[in-house]
Amino acid sequence: MTQTAARPMAGSRRGGRDEAAATTRARRGRVGQETTNWTTMVILLLCSLTVLVPLYVTISMSLKTTAQAVDGNAFSLPTPIDFSGFAEAWQLTNFPRAFVISVLITAATVAGTVLLAALASYAIVRNWERRLFRWSFFYLLAAMFLPFPVVALPQIQLTGLTGLANPVGVTILHIMFQLSFSILLFTAFLRSIPLELEESARMDGATTGQTFRKLIFPLLAPMGATVAIFAFLASWNDFMMPSLIIADSSLQTVPVVQSIFQTQFSNNYNVSFASYLMAMAPAIIVYLFAQRWVLEGVTQGAVKG
Amino acid sequence: MTTPIAPASVAAGRLVDTAEHGHVDHLAGAHNRRGRPKTDPIYYWFLIPTLALFTLAITVPAILGIFYSFTNFIGFGEWEIIGLTNYIAVFSDPAIISSYAFTFGFAFVTVILVNVIAFLLAVGLTSRIKLKSTLRAVFVIPMVISGIVIAYVFNFLFSNSLPAFGQAIGSGWLSESILANPNLAWLGVVIVTAWQSIPGTLLIYIAGLLSIPGEVYEAADIDGASALNRLFSVTLPLVAGYVVINVILGFKNYLNAYDIIVGLTNGGPGTATRSIAMTIFTGFTGGDYAYQMANATIFFIIAVLISVLQLRLTRGRAAIS
């Protein structure tokens, strides 16, 4: 597949392709074919309710008073709007602590993944003719075929033995499990960068390290954004790994805290939904700002993987 | 170097310049005895630490775990090698067999449901409609939400809102929470898993549909194909490769089901919705370490077989690779 076809969602190309498709379809047109397909659109709008209603329920429940939240009607509007659910969830779950731990794990995972994957990919692509580098590529990629449950028990055992049964251990594992996908994207992208660019830098006397830092790493930025977003989502939303690896429940991440306090929320639904909303919001906000790279990453990962 | 990207003409000029002075050692000059260009040692520093960390964090645990599956290790203390005893026991353990039956059945139903819905949505989202990018953005949201958190939200809807609706319309089986019913709880797991994984599948289908050249449809129109004809005889065969990818990737993911089940049923009622992953994790608390590692090893072999199947099916499809 050519580069263009492999990146149908990429930035400006997306618009271009959609338009191109629209014009070809318009060209084949009989009378009236250019008009909007209203039936399809209405059906799609109705389908989008399946996404929006659960989100609406989460928001409206979190803004209700405890008295209104227990009446069992999930779809009613909050009257009056009441923020005490947030205050209570904030205190009960010790949200600031869980939030800071989640942010630290996620930030370190994103930075570590982008840096290690970029360095390794660059070394692999530029030394492809060497067996060590070529085999390393397939070795690192093999982790994509390894489900976490398979290695979970030994990892729990080893992190316990090495004093890594804490957020640091989770961060290292998050980075390692994210490497395959990231290296796959980076190597594909690096192969498309013309070697002449690099040669000119070398002519100026740049070392390999300088070339990477000043030329290659900046060039990787668009793909780096995709890699970073996926590392962010995987790390922020992960429940399985921190719940098993982190031994001290006071050092748990935001998703795990939800399950720890699930029984304590009991029938204070406004408190539990406020807590759920605080857990989802960061990922949704990041998504709204970084949509393009999320869309691109899914396609790239699937097509290349 | 001052600018990150030097124009090609400048580069060419300098190539001549430096070549004359003989400074271009790492590009054209030094070769080792076997006639290959020398590798800058720093490349090893770029790769080896990551390789070492990866080996320690993933490969060593994997080998250790597989080794323990041939022992009677309970997670601590002494152990001895007992050969294939664990494996033989796994194959006759009703708890493990039922977790495989549930997980495969659930994955099978989910993969069909997800692919049918995602494909139809993708056809809709690539047709002539307004609000195209807004709709696409909305449909992708579920992908970015934590599985366990959205499972708790749906848990509330299934346990409170749906029964209230059931009572209102006087339906017997809907008046009780489907999550409390051993025969229906899996439906809840399928619905929430589908809700969360339709976006990824959808985006891959959109990419597939956009890669079909418009001329193909022109030809179909000239031949007088109906809309349904076009869908089944033109569109579907052309995105067949994408269907294969989506079905296999999805199936593999669903076999790992854990977060959503914890949030909805925690494996219950009873053990009706206990997945393979949940069974493996009991080895950590239940003193069945070696035994559950035998289970995990079998699970790993199945995952590898599915991946091999995926490579077989996707290779040789020009549309994909």
Listing every helix as H and every strand as E from the N terminus to the C terminus, the arrangement of chain B reads HHHHHHHHHHHHHH
The helix content of chain B is: 55-70%
CATH class membership of the domain at 94-314 in chain B: Mainly Alpha
Characterize the overall form of chain A. globular
Number of strands of chain A: 0
User: How many beta-strand elements of chain B?
Assistant: 0
By CATH, the superfamily of the domain at 95-266 and 289-304 in chain A comes out as MetI-like
Structural class of chain A, by secondary structure, is mainly alpha
Helical content of chain A stands at: over 70%
Stretches of chain B where pLDDT falls below 50 for ≥5 residues? 1-33
Largest interface, with counts of residues having CB < 8 Å to the other chain, equals: A-B, 124 and 116 residues
Q: For this structure, what is the CATH homologous superfamily of the domain at 94-314 in chain B?
A: MetI-like
Q: Largest beta sheet of chain B, briefly?
A: none
* Approximate strand percentage of chain B: under 5%
Along the chain, the helix and strand elements of chain A come as HHHHHHHHHHHHHHH
Largest sheet of chain A: none
Determine the N-to-C terminus distance of chain A: 13 Å
Task: Give me the number of helical elements of chain A.
Answer: 15
CATH architecture of the domain at 95-266 and 289-304 in chain A: Orthogonal Bundle
